[in-house]
Amino acid sequence: MYLRLALTTAILLLATGPSQAQVTLSRDLGMSVDVASDGRLAIDLQGDIWVIPGGGGDATQITRNLRSAQRPRWSPDNSQLAFEATIGGQQGLWLYDLGSEQSSFISEQSRIDRHPEWHPAGERITYASSRNGFGFDLWETDIATGLHWRISHRPGDETEPTWSADGRNLVYVYREGNTWSLVLRSFNASEEVLVRSTQKISSPSWRPDGSLVMWMQHADSGMTLNMAILSEPRLLRVYEEDEGIDAAPVSWLNRQRMFYVANGYLRKRNFNAWSSSQLRFRARIEPDPIPVVKRTRAPLPWIDEPTGELVIHAARLFDGIGFDYQYDKDILIQGGRILAIEDHAERPGKIVIDMGDLAVLPGYIDADARLPGGMSASHGPDLLSMGITTIAANHPNAATLTQTWSGKTIPGPRLLSGAAWQIGPQPRAELDVTGAVSSSRETGRPAGVALPNQF
Question: How many CA atoms, within 13 angstroms, populate the side-chain half-sphere of residue 160?
């Protein structure tokens, strides 16, 4: 009980503090990267799109709190970013304009669209779309008119299209059953299968000079980065197999400089180098501020408030403030309120209750109780024996429990409405309860009940 109250207090302090904790990230599993012609890099980090300077450093957050954005792709003129996301219940392709800082939905309604890829002319985007529930086909959309048209229609799935730099050749991944293929569609030529495998193929990308296509080969032992060299005859080679490559396409700045993700880190590499190096960046995530809600303490009504003065003599007293017992103390009570705690003394004319060798503890408040539905009033003494004198909870028999425990027959804790206790009452005039005024501004408290901040 004490631990629950302490944790609740800590959470409230964190939630209502003047500022929220900032998180700085420099990696993310499942991240992908695309490099612009001017060297800037776009990444999808924690479901949002960020832009990093070409040399690394501080990342700028482009979208905020989407939690679903992925696969950013620069337009050829670097003015826009295409990406896939689910925003406001709309899944599909979105376009972010860096000039206006606005996002627009470019998919058609009720479609599942993925893997956007700009045509080098910058006028249209090629993508994979599932429109009838029977698999993905390749489609295109014209940015200016918003028109969409299909460019492939095969049984199975055609996904992850990517264009050569001259816009004359298209490569995509084709899956039919348990077979994956890397397919090349050249201008005025029949489609050619560059690779066929029973293991998954993904993430193709063109080298800017058009000499080869890279792709990811999935296997039980891990991921390898492979290349299909478009010579005559075609040559297949493994480019990298030891870095823990992530399943995202390689992005090329030029025919030599390439960027990719391995083990969640952004890597840069020259094509003819034996190893890569980490491109370091910092993405500072500012959490949304949690609104501070001013709450009014729920007033505790006095029930059968006693008159006169009462003294409880405690051989041992634990007040919940210090770490040790206080010994041989008198608790002075007047009008139902604890007036003071003093050293034991003779008090003629007072009603003195000697607790003997029992320890006196403050009444614990269970501020968010989960009372079982079958609880009856007979359980009241059990709760009191555990030191619980007040419970805030919602219970189907709350009216019966409250009436019984406030009477003389079966003792039990004070039962407050859980909902009312959490949100606090609306501002209102103070009410007289059984002839006494109850106010949350008063410093006294009923005998046997402790306020939460005492713990």
Answer: 25
Q: How far is CA 254 from CA 50, 193, 225, in A?
A: 22, 26, 18
- Residue 376 pLDDT grade (very low, low, confident, very high; cuts 50, 70, 90): confident
Query: What is the per-residue pLDDT for 421?
Result: 60
- Rounded CA-CA distance 256/251 in Å is 11
pLDDT average, residue stretch 243-250: 94
pLDDT the model gives residue 11: 32
d(Cα 350, Cα 332) in Å, to the nearest integer? 10
In whole angstroms, what is the distance from residue 208 CA to residue 344 CA? 91
Q: Which of 131, 115, 98 is nearest to 163 (CA)?
A: 115
The CA distance from 5 to 23, in Å, is 27
Contact assessment for residue 249 and residue 271, using Cβ atoms and an 8 Å cutoff = no
pLDDT of residue 303: 62
142-163 pLDDT, tens digit each: 999 999 999 999 999 999 999 9
β-bridge pairing 179-186 and 23-25: unpaired
Distance CA 345, CA 90 (A): 75
pLDDT tens figures, 89-147: 888 999 999 999 999 999 997 778 999 999 999 999 999 999 877 899 999 999 999 99
Q: Would you say residue 52 has pLDDT above 90?
A: yes
